[in-house]
Amino acid sequence: MSAPMIDHTLDEILNLAASHFKVPREKLTPDDDFFKTLGIDSLQALDLLTRLEHHFRIELPDYELQGVSDFRTLASRIQARL
Amino acid sequence: MRDFKGQTLSWQLVNGAIELALHREPCNEIGSLTLDELEKFADALPRLADEAPALIVYSTMKAGFSAGADLRELFERGQAMDKNAALRGVREFLERIHAVMNAIDAAPLTTIAAVHGVTFGGGFELALVCDMIVADRIARFCFPELRLGLIPGFGGIPRLKRDLGNAVVRDLLLTGRSFNVMKAQQIGLVSQIAAEGEALRVARATASQVGKFDRGTTAAAKKFVKPIPYDELKLEIDIFCDLYSRPAVEQGLRKFVESTDAQPYLP
To answer: How far apart are the first and last CA of chain A?
Structure first.
């Protein structure tokens, strides 16, 4: 997987998360814990997952996100499904 | 009773359709109080069905249609009594909720679940009782019971088997994964997808359409295409009760109820 591709995926994730959860985009960084930075619980995380699946037109089983809480790892999981 | 406003749900006739609204905080967890009120609804349903050709079930909760059974209540009741009494209580609860689900399943009118957000476990099972599921784009479905050492207990497996191929049923059940509305439509669970926040409007339009047809013909067609798997439903209760007796279930419920993990809904 090339670095530009994952960077692009990461950027799209951060944009979507910032927009949906109304957090300034500049406050989000790839290694943030998205539960903390976005102030979301597990149900809202599933909401984010659904929106990401629609955005990237992929299916990402939630068990692949077990223990994942940072945007960078999330991007790598999504990238693996593109 | 033409209309009812309870603590967990309400119903009324709206433009010729019965609308059953779920409104228990935080996400319509189904416990004993919801069951009491669902039984009231099931009792009222035959008379309501005389007046309305369609039933819409929906949620007013932002998080979704329903997060499923009230696991906190299930755990706390289990802790408050001896094992045999707890098991009898679980069986009685399941038999009562199966009676409600079967009554809605067999009702001689067209039933539509209008779902959004979290539609998990017992909530998913309530949606499966309906003749069709209209879901908004952010709906998400899941049978997470195996994570707790259980199987779905409100009739989910027989009704999934009725509607889907067994390979898909095995995937959903044995992985406990959640899946989005596109997948749900692809596998044949969801008949219509609505924009975010529009499932109820789409369900109302559908209810209006089905109301144009002869009631007797609709009832005959429904009975023909939607047989109720009574034997399997009874077997599901037996299997659930066998599993419930094992220590792994208590451990699983305790872990869920006492979790401070940010991801209790993720496997």
So the answer is: 11
Q: What are the tens digits of pLDDT across the range B203-250?
A: 999 999 999 999 999 999 999 999 999 999 999 999 999 999 898 898
Q: Which option is the CATH number for B4-258: 3.90.226.10, 3.40.50.720, 3.40.640.10, 3.40.50.12280?
A: 3.90.226.10
Position B45 scores a pLDDT of 97
**Residue B108 to residue B34: CA distance in whole angstroms:** 23
CB–CB contact B265 A46 (8 Å)? yes
Q: Distance (Å, rounded) from C-alpha B34 to C-alpha B17?
A: 22
Question: Can B258 be counted among the known catalytic residues?
Answer: no
Question: Domain extents for chain B?
Answer: 4-258
For residues B136 and B195, is the Cβ–Cβ distance under 8 A? yes
B151: its two tokens? 């199987």
Mean pLDDT across B68-94: 92
Contacts of B182 in chain A (CB under 8 A): 53-54, 59
The pLDDT score that the predictor gives to residue B267 is 46
Of A42, A47, A54, the CB nearest to B266: A42
Q: What is the ipTM of this complex?
A: 0.85
For the cut 80, the answer to whether the pLDDT of residue B149 exceeds it is: yes
The CATH number covering residue A60 comes to 1.10.1200.10
Q: Looking at residue B147, what is its pLDDT?
A: 87
End-to-end CA distance of chain B: 42
Distance CA B141, CA B171 (A): 13
Q: What is the DSSP string of A8-64?
A: HHHHHHHHHHHHHHT--GGG--TTSBHHHHHT--HHHHHHHHHHHHHHHT----GGG
Known active-site residue B125: yes
Cross-chain residue pair A50–B140, CB shorter than 8 Å: yes
Residue A69 is part of which domain span?
Answer: 3-79
Q: What pLDDT, on a 0 to 100 scale, did the predictor assign at position A43?
A: 84
